[in-house]
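Pilot study result, target chain (698 residues):
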Amino acid sequence: MTFNLLQNFDVFEKFRDLPTQIKVAEDIALHKEKLSRDVWQIALATTDKEGLLSVVAGLLTAYGANISSADIFAVPETSDQTRPQATTISLARIMDIFTVNLADVNDPERTLSDLFEELANTNRDMAQSGIDAVRDRLIDMVATAIETRAPSGEQLLPVKIVIDNDLSDTDTVVRITSQDIPGFLFAFANALALLEINIEQATIRTEGGEVHDTFWIRNLHGRKILDKDKLQELRFACALIKQFAYLLPHCPNPGQAIRQFRDLAARLLEDPERAADFTSIQSAQTMQTLASLMGVSRFLWEDFLRMQHENLFPLIRNREEIEKTLDRKQWSDMLRKELEAADNYEQKVKILNDFKDREMFRIDLRHITRTIGDVAFSRELTTLTDVIVAQTAEICHATVASRFGRPEVEGQPCSSCILAAGKYGGCEMGFASDLELLFIYQAQGTTGGQRCVENSRYFEEFVRTFLKALKSRKEGIFEIDLRLRPFGNKGTLASSLQAFQNYYAIDSQAEQFERLAMVKLRPIAGDEGLLRRVMEARDAFVFSGAPIDYANILHLRRRQDAELVKNGRVNLKLSAGGLVDIEYFLQAQLIEHGAADPALRVSNAMQGLNRLEAAGWIAPARANDLRRAYRCFRRTIDALRAVRGNARDLTLPLPKSPDYLYLSRRLGFANPEELSAEIAWSRELSRNLWITRSRALP
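Predicted structure:
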């Protein structure tokens, strides 16, 4: 093998005996030498392995060693003559020599001893089981080291990249000049592995505050990289990785970001045209958006980016798209225009769901990048969902009517409508929200088509079609919940107005919790006259002036805490002192005082609190405390859902766990203890809302 030793020939000669100590793949030869107060030279030799350079660089970063220079060599292959002739193997050996600064390490001797032990153990694991056996542990170690660094400034790091195929007869030479970035060599070696490129030799030199990285590389066949597309990919990867490493400290969870970035890079590099678009990552805004996105949400990554990564990059590099605010009319017009291209029901359903996922992701990204706050986030998600629900209903009515004809009542069209409840009804949607819906039709009758069926059958088929048409990105996310319909899961999917009025009557079978839940009922789509009559029936039931059964509410809360919360854990919604206590309290207050004051008949919790305060029913100090606790619960629940992609699992991570640390960072707390204190304060306030009531009950 021909070497490009150039100016580092002397350092190679100094340690040339190290590779001779390597007899089998598990062997590793290590050497350390103190050069000055904080500067050490570290040399190692072992057999070449997939991902080895990234592992060594990652461990140096994890142990606090800042690389000031490095020389990476591939050593000529030799045969292992220590084995019987029948088992003689060819050994491809490497030698890495690093000059590192250990100024940030308290005990350099002990640190290097621990590092060498880790290198030996990791090398053995890789020899026996490959890179996958150590990758996750290594990522976590690198992430922990990166977490201790303060985030860099907001300006993007200038990067100069030169790719030279004339300097060497055997290798493509890549030179990268930029500011020093801890963890870059680790990330870069990983990226080249994605491109199926091997690093044959490398030098890293720090000069005048700049780092000059030079890599001699070949493809998997041991040849230069001459393909134009591959060279564009290489240039793209160099810039992308350098900027990513620079912005890693901005990520709330660097380990998760490293894992996500590896996948993103692989996806982006699948498209030669995108790799050729080198200018697309030369924007500070683009890279800072990536840094905000990665390490925040496993849900967004796993269930959206992997499916629709082609929509990701054009969106994040166009800041105007992220900053653009749309209203209901604009979304409606956009969706209708896209649907014009559809020739049949199946195409319409696909366009509808693609539109939903794309625009939901855009809103999610607006929130993650702090373009909008919590209130605007909920409002935009709710408005978009209103548009989606209304258009889905229109598409489904058309397809069901094509089979049965339109429903009629005494020869006239039978009107219908859709209403929302829960977080959707209250305009309080967040990450991973589901949709609580009610479907109501005017009255019994029959359809006017050749295949005549009763209206009840028509609307049952309509709701079933609706449920199939509106796809959920993941279980529990944008999933439709119909349990608030009369008789719950035992009732029909759609109810006539008369059935709704009979069930939600003051002397009916409706439960106390259903009275509370109906506070959040909100009209969405359909005939305005029918919607008005439904809301009048709701008001007659909820705001009748009949006493609230507080004993029933407290009994329900005790059951929720005992039956739905894991032993010894805190569920932010259902545990004693959770979000539900505030929601039930406010709903009860609105019911009590809304009978005489129609202005209090609102579905949004914080709007209701504002009106209760303005009317004098809740003191200003108490109202401010409720806002603080409510915001704590909602923000923390949203953060959990964003990561988990699960609307139901609202259990807090254990306080000493890494997940709890990352949660506190996502929420902007200086440390986990501050988050714990805020949650404890909020739970105490929430729990005490019911103390006076419980003492007054038998």
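One observation from the pilot: The radius of gyration is 32 Å. A full batch analysis is planned for the follow-on phase.
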